[in-house]
Amino acid sequence: MKVVIIEDQAEIVEAVSMCFELRWPDVTVLSTGEGIKGLELIEAESPDVVILDLGLPDIDGFEVLHQIDLFSNVPIIVLTVRNQKMDIVRGLEAGADDYITKPFDHIEFLARVKAVLRRTSMPQLKRNTEPFQSGKLRIDFDTREVSLDGKKVKLTPIEYNLLQHLAKNAGHVMSHHALLEKVWGVEYTNATDYLKVHIQRLRAKLCDNLSAPELIVTERRVGYKLVKSS
Q1: N or C: which end of the chain has fewer CB within 10 A?
Q2: Residue 203: C-alpha distances to residues 83, 177, 206 (Å)
Q3: How far is it, in rounded angstroms, from Cα 171 to Cα 184?
């Protein structure tokens, strides 16, 4: 496994590196204290996971998230002292897969990393599964390709997994609890902010009306439903 750490505090880099080396002895850890160099590392090395601090000396961590989203689907865990709900939501909206605040517990950190890796590398549905079609939306489960009116839609692994579960249950409401457990894991069944942010990202990418969605509709206090149309 290969990890890129973008963090300017040497003691945090050392602690995070030790966590990975304890769990994955053959891990390759690459680190930098600057966002620009971090982007270059990610593009050159294609890591399995990125650990990102938001308070970097050259560019803002949120900008790093935005730039990564333009060229890579690598899972990203934000590790930062910023613990305000607004920052957490903003980080998730910018493309983070998880958000951990400092100081952090090493055991919890490893559990969260394992959970992120598990959900971003979920196995595909069995081959020869019929594609899903609803209006202009088409999902090819065999290739994991999503298209809208014939144009390919770029989704992160989590966004795809979320859409896949909604599509498999099209026409039926999936509860917040069920979606969080299936996509994020049992450790995240109360993390409704994660679900809300990713639903909004999905709606935006699928050109669903954000103020009055018609494709992914909200069942107030219950969950979400993917509407199947001809």
Answers
A1: C
A2: 27, 20, 5
A3: 22
**Rounded mean pLDDT of 113-133?**
74
List Cβ neighbours of 57 (8 Å cut-off, separation of 6 or more).
8, 33, 34
pLDDT, tens only, 21-47? 999 999 999 999 999 999 999 999 999
* 107 Cβ neighbours under 8 A, 6+ residues apart: none
- Taking the CA atoms of 190, 158, 170 and 208 in sequence, report the sign of the dihedral they define: positive
- CATH number corresponding to 132-226: 1.10.10.10
The dihedral built from the CA positions of residue 165, 169, 173 and 178, taken in this order, carries a sign that is negative
The pair of structure tokens assigned to 164 is: 């896949």
Q: In this predicted structure, what is the pLDDT of residue 122?
A: 57
Residue with tokens 């689907």: 73
Report the b/e string of 39-64 with b at 16+ CB within 10 A. Answer: bebbeeeebbbbbbbbebeeeebbbb
Return the percentage of the chain with pLDDT > 90, whole number.
69
0.85 exceeded by the pTM? no
Residues of the chain with CATH 1.10.10.10: 132-226
**What class has domain 2-120?**
alpha beta
- Answer yes or no: are the C-beta atoms of 141 and 124 closer than 8 Å: yes
